[in-house]
Amino acid sequence: METVWLTLADGTRWRGNAPFGLKAALDGEVVFSTSMGGYAQSLSDPSYCGQMLVFTFPSQGIYGVDADALEGIRPWVSAAVVQGLESTPLPGIRRLGEWLAEWGVPLVTGVDCRNLVLRLRERGTLMGRLARESEAPHLQALPDSLVRTVTCSETCAAGGDGPTVVLVDYGVKRNILRSLENRGCRVIRVPASTTAEEILAWNPAGVVLSNGPGDPAALREETAVVTHLLGKVPLFGICLGTQLLAQACGARTAKLPYGHRGSNQPVLHLESRRGYVTSQNHGYAVVEETLDGAGLFATFRHLGDGTVEGIASRNVPAWGVQFHPEACPGPRDTAFLFDSFLQHLAKEASHDA
After folding, report:
1. H or E stretch including 313?
2. What would the pLDDT profile of 260-277 be if each residue is shown by its tens digit?
3. Is 300 exposed, middle or buried (0-12, 13-18, 19+ CB in 10 A)?
4. Is residue 100 a contact partner of residue 74, using CB atoms and an 8 Å limit?
5. In which element (H, E) is residue 115 found?
6. C-alpha torsion angle, residues 170, 214, 312, 223 (rounded to 10)
7. Is 177 helix (H, G, I), strand (E, B) or coil?
8. Which of 29, 222, 309, 326 is catalytic?
9. Which of 62, 91, 122, 231 is the most exposed place for a label (fewest CB within 10 A)?
10. Which of 239, 249, 260, 302 is catalytic?
11. CB proximity list for 14: less than 8 A, separation 6 or greater
């Protein structure tokens, strides 16, 4: 058991323990999740690449790690920060700390996470350094290439004999793939560097733009690809994919003070006036004042801070949501968005016929 220090960019320091050790000092963007469960899914979400994830729920590790239920092939966080760690042994289930240690991801326990989160809410998301010594760090911003770190290395196909859907992988969560495959789609998963011409060569019925990490404004090449796809094929964006879609249409994105991360984020569907509890993981949002000039309108709104949570185009078949419709923060309330997308693809196919 080592004593370690998490030092934020504003100079505040937080003491904790590293029960599995700390090989070397590391930097990352310090963010927090308000989820009360699903810690393994959060830690393996590629959208957390480059970030140290702080959990607000006081005890983690209670039910271990089920490898079949992960959202990525590995834990993608830079570090996990918790107040308390449970390590109840379960037959055939890995313990949380052991799983993280296998991948060299530091686990920090004993931190006053409640006060740490209050600090992040007051100051906004901050970079931090995790080290054995309490030192004032000189921190750099996250690199622009995080999407290239988490995207798939080659194109692969899976699923059924239904409509062909190309899924552009900016760091896709596994359950997005499952949601499409379970609906019979033939899913062509392509790397983030795939060109518009290569995507259209599959003759897809539609294209899904996945979630992923980092600042969407830095992804100029990826945005340009989406611009070339507009009007040629129906598009459905999820999280980062929605931000790229907005930028491709001419809207802007901006960083939120501390983001939306957790499985208890309330949104309002503006057309039906129905509220939904959603799972979210994003630090950026579409600037609402730029929607109209880009031919877009808001479809969902966050009930906490009023930010845009969904968009649609007035000119071409293109939609997107900031939250995760494939996630299950309780009931599968927003899974209907996949059904709506596929229903539109069916209408397009019948119209073309």
Report:
1. strand 308-313
2. 999 999 999 999 999 999
3. buried
4. no
5. helix 113-123
6. -70
7. helix
8. 326
9. 91
10. 239
11. 5, 6, 7, 8, 111, 112, 116
In the Cβ-directed half-sphere of 232, how many Cα atoms lie within 13 Å? 15
The owner of tokens 């799983």 is 99
| Across 93-104, average pLDDT | 93
Q: What's CA 39's distance to the chain center, in Å? A: 14
pLDDT in tens, 134-184: 766 667 777 778 999 999 999 999 988 999 999 999 999 999 999 999 999
Question: CB neighbours of 55 closer than 8 A, spacing ≥ 6?
Answer: 32, 33, 35, 39, 80, 81, 82, 83, 113
Three-state secondary structure along 219-283?
CHHHHHHHHHHCCCCCEEEECHHHHHHHHHHCCCEEEEEEEEEEEEEEEEECCCCEEEEEEEEEE
**Cα 327 from Cα 240, distance rounded (Å):** 15
Q: Which of 261, 312, 295 has the alpha carbon at shortest distance from 57?
A: 261
Distance CA 260, CA 323 (A): 9
260, 282, 302, 324: the active-site residue: 324
Cα distances (angstroms) measured from residue 145 to each of 194, 274, 330: 15, 37, 33
Helix orientation angle between 240-249 and 220-229, rounded to the nearest 10 degrees = 70
- How far, in Å, are 199, 301, 302, 333, 341 from residue 271 at the CA level? 32, 11, 14, 16, 17
Chain segment 214-232, per-residue pLDDT in tens: 999 999 999 999 999 999 9
Is 302 tagged catalytic? no
Question: Which pairing describes strands 274-286 and 51-55: parallel, antiparallel, or unpaired?
Answer: unpaired
Pairing mode, strands 206-209 and 253-269? unpaired
- Please state, in angstroms and rounded to a whole number, the distance separating the CA atoms of residues 28 and 89: 31
Residue 324 known to be catalytic: yes
Query: Exposed, middle or buried, 218 (CB in 10 Å: 0-12/13-18/19+)?
Result: middle
